[in-house]
Amino acid sequence: MLEITSAQNPRLKAAHKLKDRRERDKTGLFVIEGFREISRAKSIEIETLFICPELFLGSNEGALIQSTNVETLKLSPALFKKLSFRDRPDGLFAVGKKPESQLPKLSNNPFLVIAQAIEKPGNLGSILRSCDAAGVDGCIVADRCTDIYNPNVVRASVGTLFTVPTTEMPSDELLPWLKKNNIQIVATTPDTDLEFTHADLTGPVAIAVGTEQLGLSDAWLSQADIKVRIPMLGEADSLNVAAATTLMLYEVLRQR
Amino acid sequence: MLEITSAQNPRLKAAHKLKDRRERDKTGLFVIEGFREISRAKSIEIETLFICPELFLGSNEGALIQSTNVETLKLSPALFKKLSFRDRPDGLFAVGKKPESQLPKLSNNPFLVIAQAIEKPGNLGSILRSCDAAGVDGCIVADRCTDIYNPNVVRASVGTLFTVPTTEMPSDELLPWLKKNNIQIVATTPDTDLEFTHADLTGPVAIAVGTEQLGLSDAWLSQADIKVRIPMLGEADSLNVAAATTLMLYEVLRQR
Questions:
Q1: Residue A104 forms part of a structural domain
Q2: Chain-chain contact of B234 with A126 (C-beta, under 8 angstroms)
Q3: Which candidate, A174, B4, B10, B228, has a CA 20 to 30 Å from the CA of A134?
């Protein structure tokens, strides 16, 4: 195993630069940090793995390192902490290749999430975690705003970015694709009387949610097959977007 | 209206220091930034209001400023951006007094949220937003970890920190108080067969959720009256804590 001892090491510097979106776009590489995240990244081609055994939290790191089957570079705790994007690094930091973007395979009764132009990596990560839990066919990010390979998406998703088929697509391609596949677009909006628990969500559905600030765009609202609202009994007029998405996904599960 | 023109102004420096928890604890003051947040802080005694009209986004700022009825200090955009805790400040930054901690008033059919030792301000803020929307009697933070007056809690809650009766209390005082008031403790945990949609949540309930890393402590799990699980169909073993809380709250609403 190679050991890196200088902060000026070019591979270390290249990996740290992947914090920057332009660098990820340019190289096609991204960062997967943490034991659970790397464990779930079975679908990803890992290129390099930086480790720091002094920072390991468990006892299964050895098996995980072997399973990735790539070159492993060892760092001191001080160097690893410089490389890490986290407050409490756990000694595992992988560089992986972004997979090719492809539309999710549809099940017999399609169940999709459309996340339009989500801004905050934490929200997108939390949405993916709920997508994994609810067993959706896939999550399609329409009109990308936050990069799905942002390290904070990987982290907030706890690696479910790799278990949920996830891709990006412009709305003007995605809308006709959904129509062609007879998938009902379900839009959450305050401008309807139909409560989400009263809508029939048992058929093929795409749950569409919009940006934190403005909600879904007019294109999505006007093409929605079902518009539902989430009851709001307090002073605020909306929920956090990931919370709202989770409610919708589990309502589909409950009805099915 | 006073205008501050120096970054060395002591009132400006004192306000900026409130980013730091120790400073908030010492002074009993905290920051409420943003139009919606300040609008919802009717229950809070505002001490100072910093404004920057060039950064206002809407046209109702004047009325809001008048309604706070406190000394207003004007800043240039450059100074305001230095003061602000946000990426996109909207020209309104208030310093308020932390209210006295008190237990929420119970309705005829009590409905509470217990958030144990939540670490991330964004999660606590998102939980409060859902508490507001679901009309709970209050949210009690057991064994505080993140400070409820952290500026990021105020922001992520979009000011619902002020519309939801919120307080902090150690678990060993809170547990007997709930028992005394005949409120059923509902714990969410993977270690049960009862799905949350099958439990009877129509009576007086306190929905208890635990830390992001470890879930609820043994004290809460052992004293819970009802243990429920949220179905997890994917690879991950839990949802984001705010997403899970939202599901539980809306299930109570649906059943009631």
A1: no
A2: no
A3: A174
